Amino acid sequence: MSFQDRTAEFQACVTKTRSRLRTTTANQAVGGPDQTKHQKSEFTRIAQKIANQINQTGEKLQKLSQLAKRKTLFDDRPVEIQELTFQIKQSLSSLNSDIASLQQVVKGNRNKPAQMNQHSENVVVSLQNSLANTSMTFKDILEIRTQNMKASQNRTEKFVASSSMNANPLINSGNSISPFADYNDPKPEANEDYLSLNLGDGANTRYEQMALLESQTDTYSQQRMSSIQNIESTITELGGIFSQLAQMVSEQRETVQRIDMHTDDIVSNIGSAQREIVKFYERMSSNRALLFKIFGIVIIFFLLWVLVT
Amino acid sequence: MSQEDAFYGKGSYGASSGNSNIPPQGFQPVYPVAGQLDNTAPYVGAVAEGTAEGIVSNGEYAVGAMGAAPTNIIGSVDQQPPVSHTSHKSRRQYPAEVFELTNTLAASPAPPSLSEPSYVMARTPSSSPYPHDRAEVGTKSLSAQFGGMSLGADGAAAMPTNELVSVDLYNQTPEISDLTSPPPPINLPLSYSATGAATSNCPPKYVRSTINCVPTTNSLLKKSKIPFALVIRPYTSLVEEDDPVPVVTDTIISRCRRCRMYINPFSIFIDNGHRYRCNSCGIVNEVPQSYDWDSFRNVQRDRWQRPELNYAVVDFIAPQEYMVRAPQPLVYVFLIDISFVSISSGMVGTASRAILESLDRIPNKEGRAKVAFIGVDSALHFFSVSPGAEEATQLVVSDLEEPFLPRNQDLLLNLRECRQGIENLLERFQSMFATTRDSSNALGPGLKAAHRLIENIGGKICCLISSLPNVGVGKLELREDPKLLGTNRESSLLHPNDSFYKSFAVECSTSQVSVDMFLFSSQYQDVATLSCLPRYTSGKTQFYHRWNASRSEDALKFASELTNYLSMEIELEAVMRVRGSNGLRMSSFYGNFFNRSSDLCAFPSFPRDQSYVVEVVIEDTITKPFVSFQTAMLHTTCNGERRIRVLTISLPTTNSMTDLYASADQVAIAQYLTVRASEKALSSTLNEARDSIISKLVEILEVYKKNLAGQNTGAAIPLQISTNLRLLPLLCLALTKHTGFRRSSHISSDLRSIALCYLSTLPTPLLMRYIYPTLYSLHDMPIEAGTVTEQGVVLPSALNLTSALLQSFGLYLVDTHIHQFLYIGKDAVPQLLIDAFGVNSLADLKAGRFTMPVIDNPLNVRINAILGKLRSLDKGSTIMPSLYLVRGDGDPQLRSWFFSHFVEDRSENSPSYLQFLQTLKEKVRD
Fold this sequence. Notes:
The complex is a heterodimer of chains A (about 300) and B (about 950). Chain A has a domain at about 45-165 and about 205-250: Methane Monooxygenase Hydroxylase, Chain G, domain 1. Helix content of chain A is about 80%, strand content about 0%. Chain A has 8 helices and no strands. Chain A has helices at about 5-30, 35-70, 80-110, 115-165, 190-195, 205-250, 255-285, 290-309. In chain A, α2 (about 35-70) packs antiparallel against α3, α2 runs parallel beside α4 and α3 (about 80-110) runs antiparallel to α4 (about 115-165). The longest helix of chain A is centred in the middle third of the chain and has 53 residues, at about 115-165. Chain A is rod-shaped, with a radius of gyration of 53 Å. Residues about 30 and about 180-210 of chain A have low confidence and may be disordered. Chain B is of the alpha+beta class. Chain B folds into 4 domains: about 160-185 and about 665-770 and about 905-925, CATH 1.20.120.730; about 215-325 and about 570-665, CATH 2.60.40.1670; about 330-570, von Willebrand factor, type A domain (Rossmann fold, 3-Layer(aba) Sandwich), CATH 3.40.50; about 775-900, Severin (3-Layer(aba) Sandwich). In chain B, the strands form 8 sheets. In chain B, strands 3, 5, 11, 20, 22, 23, 25 and 26 form an 8-stranded mixed sheet that branches. In chain B, a hairpin with a 6-residue loop joins β7 (about 275) and β8 (about 285). In chain B, α2 (about 30-50) packs antiparallel against α3. The longest helix of chain B is centred in the first third of the chain and has 29 residues, at about 130-160. Chain B starts with a helix and ends with a helix.
């Protein structure tokens, strides 16, 4: 904590001092006439109220000053400034009329002692000076606000211009009006519920049909635009796919070469196998007589076995 | 009246006992007094502590002590079941009274066997003779009983209940002004608090309960079917000065030694102020010795002026034992996608210029804030600035498998020391990559590198991404399938597609790193997967649909939101806990955070524009007249100060379902249903989410019909609900028709995902506008609407969202807080167009994203004032709504989007409000 708020102590001290002074004033005023005392109290009360209101207006002015002096882009609170301006304007006008009324009261009491009149006039002049200073401050703040608004507008325009300059308007340019008209093929909705609201008027039927035709034309254009967008994205994806394919093909060159060599080996091996099979076939053909003999023996044995049983 | 009845009943018991002459039943007449004494105990304590005079305080304390002892004696007798007597005669009252006195005196010999009476006996003068002590005890117990009864009477008079008024939902148009009305009042007398300050209980903008009257048993809560939850919004403004709360600066923090609840306005001081009784668990705690001493000024201070005893929402400045390390500085790491799409759409240029404009608005009072910039495409581009240097050095890391930091220092830039270098870097950031043709996006490796950069400190990673990550870890595929939209399998598109983002979120949360996502879409962006990081690291997800900087509306919206985001005074390394009174337990937590243990929510950084929902379970029967909930959030401010924000809300208890329904808050219930349905949509299916909303509403209507509605024997049974819940069906219907939950084949998964993100994080006033947008009529608004008065800019009255109110020649404004729509009917007269927009015909108005022109015309000035007022209604939001112009004869898709906000009308898949009520009526009848 870099500082300590001792406002409460100060206010307590002020309260004590004020009460002490009030006691002294009461003692002095014992001998005065009641009417004069009452009149002075009324005057002092009104003056004090006006002074308090001027102070409150000053506080609002301070807050307005803070808001108006903000120069950072996007740090603008126009509604808050507008509201504060309205309140301050109202306060200033009401204070002005209050001070005028107070001045009338002072003029109406010309028969008072000269010293008291001088004091009253001094109080009125002092209040008028405070109000004038507050009004001047208000005017200065409004001027600053106007300048800052112009500067902020210029900077905003520069900001937008630089952003636009950097951006490619073609990207995301279509279908900006509705977030639901993207990614998909938009199917034109009939919207009977909404269109039928106006069909009660017979006079509007013709215009409604024309509007519907116009909508259909717009829908057709939007459809074509969406299709083109889809084709564009598909082509982009295909480009990526082909790039990956080329990369895979280059990576697999050695593998393909080895496969080719293995294929040649396979061909020669198959040739050798074929020659062996041909030899075996010839040997099997020459042994045909032996097969017949074995087959005959088996049949004879079978017949004997059957006769015995 | 109730007290007299109780007294009379007691008399009847006494009479019967006298007649029967049965000694064991001699204790029955004392039974009814026990409850009253127990209920009024807090009064005795409060009164005792409220008095400053020592003499009177001692006397009151003695009465309180005596009041406790008889309660214990009677408590032991309470175990016997009460015996009911049906016969009584009025002429027996006087003898019964005498008998009661005899009984009380007869009970006196029992105390020596109990510990509490011994405590009481110890306080009597030891020099007194024993018979005198006995007589004194008897006398004081009698006075305690009578005192308790009188206090009970005062309590009954001081605790009015909310009136239960039934309305027939069919016979009236929904009163949408209820959405902005205050919730049902919490009828808790201020005498329960230590100081009686009007700010002792929590205002609804911070903590809002679904029921402002808590049932004493879980069975009553279950029978009522009303969910019990708290909606907590610890901050209501982006910067502290817009909504300051009292700060306790002397680091004297007193907490209950058992339940650890902080001292609060409802703590009960006893023992002449030296001790206090915890309002949560009832245990007695010591007050710190220095509690009444102002060590800075060396004077005695008034205890009752301490902020934590007068305000329900306070900030404590934490002492040393609440810190585990030096306070963390504010750190932002900007992960900027510099792929071809980002450069072409203008995102990189707009972002760098917006950050440049925001450097003065980042909170940096102590000069400790740090920033870092990492460009992401097929490689990682780091930028190094030495302190005092005027130029930045770019360091490119091409290794994406194991991304490393190319330099040990000067990558994390102190905002004040490296200011010139940062400014030069941001000015040339766009031109550095203007000629890129690289379409890669290595977001995963970039996140890993950023995490490695700040994992020892903590901070925020701000991702600005325009394309789908397609390189390295965490790359995502194009899985959007239009054929799945509107079917049951659509829910799979809302689930995360890659486990990297969940596991990385856990790593970030552990090292106090928070991730925010700003997503700009050219095509599919997979918001469902990328929003996992913000969800578990207490960040946020922003989505800019088909964004292009050449449209000034897009550029200004993003720049405004980014600067608001950077100027927010976030809290760092925060943990939040919600504690409740005995018998209450927090069961579920909803929002963007990481649940570290069962009831501790961890926030690497705490944003000021979100809210959280906590569900409450009643575990034990509540015996006190009120319960308290305390939300404590220990955090480090962005200015390096360790603080604890404490929000305390106390709610009265009841055992009446009528009181329960009369105190229900429809807005809080709607918010609870919203966040629960959002979680269901993300964890299971959209159908279950929609069904959970409708089924809860049907349950509430069933209970109301069976238990609370008037006995209606007519043939036509009305659909009734209490006045304070009459908008709940409309809010549930609007919720099921919302972008996040509506059954439709035209809502892409990205739009649905971002809608669910908003639904689960928006604070209550903004969420209500998001669910049920506000409709204003501008062509015939009152003369004072749009003008500035003492109360600020006057808004016109809100209309119901039904297109029956729309005229074909009118001008209307719909505000959802995220978007604003101006609808101009096709039959608008040229004078209206000239006054409002400065154009002569409808053909001159360009539909779509729109900037309201500023011309010197009263109607235009008023409309601009209304638009500005709506944008600044809530100081706790970073969102700047997009304005769209919809023409009555314009684009059908834009019009269907506009009319989809009219939730009281029938649409393709949803019923109208009256049809919805008919459906509810049929379900309730079953």
